Amino acid sequence: MKSILSITILAFTFFLSCSPATENVEKNEARANVETPVSEEEKAINQLVADAYKALNFKTGTQPDYEAIKALFTAKATLVNMGGESPEFSFIDDFIAGFKAAIDAGELTSVREWELGGETESFGKIGHRISASNAIFNENEEAAEKNVNSFQVVKVDGKWLINSIVWDVESEGMPIPVQYLTKQ
Fold this sequence. Notes:
6-stranded mixed beta sheet, disordered N terminus
């Protein structure tokens, strides 16, 4: 009888100690399901990313504004293309030089890239936008590709700038995650 009473008391004590935790989990889940308003910082980061896509776009017979592209980045910003066999690293100046050389050589005649969706986070003077995009090069819609671009941004002298972009290309067996296809 004594052992049944001990087990009952132990079980009841355990149940009571778990109840607040369960309530907290339920409250946290409810909070997670509520849409968080986008902060002014996140809006500014989203605009920076939109400006980057816009700056890289150009039509056949024209050229992008290279200075406008450069103005969106820190002086030592890095760009890393993970879409090939091995990573391709470049600093912003080298990226722009290669971009311009491909255009001047006629290898790249147009770019149309736009964001499909993504997620933004920020803390203090650092931020991140993971962004899914669709890209069409040389007006060849059959060769369009979808990418996931990871933008790391920093706030310098009150202005958000891109410090790094790392991207990879969607492929068979590696589709873009659904959460990146929704505007946020």
